[in-house]
Amino acid sequence: MPTKSKGPAGELEKMKDIHEELFEKVDRLNHALINLRYEGKANAGKNLKEAWEILCFFEKEVCVHVEAEEKFLFPFLEAHVPRLSPLINLFQAEHEDFRKNLKRFRLALEDLYAEKGNHGRSESIDKVKEVGTYLIYLLRQHLPAEEESVYKAVYRELHEEEREELERLMSSNDGKRMKKAS
Ligand SMILES: [Fe+2]
Ligand SMILES: [Fe+2]
What we know:
Helix content is 84%, strand content 0%.
C-alpha cells in the first residue's frame, strides 16, 4: 500500500485523484455514447451535452495532468529507475495518441452539433461513437497500467528525499500555472 503523504494532499496524490475522476468520467462517457442514438425528444441533447462536458474536462484537466507527467514524473523516474524507461516510452506514445484522438473527438462532436438532417446525423453519431469509444479504450488500459508501474515505483523505489524533490518540482510548476491562469 502506498503511504499517503501527511498534511495537505501532495502533488502526487493530486495526480492520482485525477485518475480516479477520470475513471468516473470514462464510465459516464461510455454511457452517454451508448444512449446518444436512442435519446428521445424528452431528453434530446442530454447525452450530447454530457459528451461535450467530458471533452472539455479532458482538454482542460487531463491535458495539464498528462503534461505534468511528461515534464516531471517521467523524466524523474527514468533518471532514478532506468528499468522503467521502455514502459515510460509506451505511456508517452499513448499520450500522443490521446491528444490526437481528442482533437478528432472535438471535430466529430462539432459536426454532430451542426448536423440537422437525419441521414447526416446518423453518420455523425457513428463518428462520435467511433472516436469516443477509442478514447475510452485507450484510457481504460492506460490508467491502471500507469498506476501499477510508475505511480507504484514512486512509493516503492524512490527514497523519501527523492520523492520530496519530485513533489517540490511539481508544486513549483503548479504555482507557475496558477499565476498564468489568474
Ligand atoms: Fe499518463
Ligand atoms: Fe496519468
